[in-house]
Amino acid sequence: xxxxxxxxxxxxxxxxxxxxxxxxxxxxxxxxxxxxxxxxxxxxxxxxxxxxxxxxxxxxxxxxxxxxxxxxxxxxxxxxxxxxxxxxxxxxxxxxxxxxxxxxxxxxxxxxxxxxxxxxxxxxxxxxxxxxxxxxxxxxxxxxxxxxxxxxxxxxxxxxxxxxxxxxxxxxxxxxxxxxxxxxxxxxxxxxxxxxxxxxxxxxxxxxxxxxxxxxxxxxxxxxxxxxxxxxxxxxxxxxxxxxxxxxxxxxxxxxxxxxxxxxxxxxxxxxxxxxxxxxxxxxxxxxxxxxxxxxxxxxxxxxxxxxxxxxxx
Length: 314
Fold this sequence. Notes:
By secondary structure, the protein is of the alpha+beta class.
């Protein structure tokens, strides 16, 4: 189940999640090992990662890089190599979601490194392994929550993946190796009922880095609840294809915050994977998001998009 993508649960064939930068690239590069959400993971297995269109500012990038420098230093790793670029509106690669636990459980889980336990700052922690990145990220549009990647995009992307070796790869042990869903909210409390949160001594720099990471995430707090489509008492991340929900939701309207995210909404945010399309042109970006030298910005993506449509690139 852990290798090669497995069979994700529910109605997802090639599930994808749109994330803001720099969190998206940090996850695909194996630096980020916990994806924090206010809702539990609806899948196990391969999850594709797409970067949203918002250009990250330098202060946000610095805050998150400082955060990971500090939590890796807890485990003696001081030479972190961060991504040179944080591209936007791109499919970046994928990871394997092997489980999901509650935020209050992760600090008590002594079987994982201390630095990993410090990553858990949200209601639910998605446990991520086996990062892979695309040699050439694909330009495409994103949607809310988890949605199915279009088949022709998946077939092209899966051929361009390369494995990534993170600074400190972690294997999250399953309570029941025969059950890929055994690592779920509440399972750590059941397995280790007497365990307590370990007292990780936090230096002033570590405490400041955690506070900075939380502050960086607050800029993505949901501001307009009216933009969401809610199904009362629905299952999170349901994908509907009827005409009433056929319009794609704008990716930056209400993306869930990666750190310090809280939500009191028990409804379902609806998205539609059938209307995914490549954006016609690249969007503006900061100096950290420029295309590497030697790669024409938009060139491979434009050719790829044209081949999908049966058109000649202009």
